[in-house]
């Protein structure tokens, strides 16, 4: 059961761990009830797998994952917004947090931007829009900044257009794809199926 939250007693063998004892806290069985929830839950697991180092503790990331599971199960927040918030939290908790309040080129304070420098993990002011910057809408900058600073329990207030969701997805999928040793593939087939509908 890939989404089971519990307390485990492990025995380390030569190359693998063996579970000696397990007490299940929550199985998150509901996450396998429909294709969308199952796919997004698997995507979260894949992100954790590619973004963390074996045997290295990251309590904040663990809390983020379990909180996301609970919110996915209860469907109180738009799933796409929740997943984007998780991606931002993942980037932040693994050292790739976005620079949102100042230009990544000159350091000038910014409160709006429509240029993101993916290599520098931040946004550019209008004076520094370098050739390496990607053009995005002002609303996408504001959405990313808002989600990045908003506690998970407040995400239900946020409603986005399909275009905004698409642009935020594009930005974050590029950042996630370039930040870790491999690109997550869990959503590829799901996205293909959605486009075919």
UniProtKB/TrEMBL annotation:
Membrane spanning stretches: none
GO cellular component, one term: bacterial nucleoid
Example GO BP: double-strand break repair
Name recorded for this polypeptide: DNA replication and repair protein RecO
Protein's organism: Clostridium collagenovorans DSM 3089
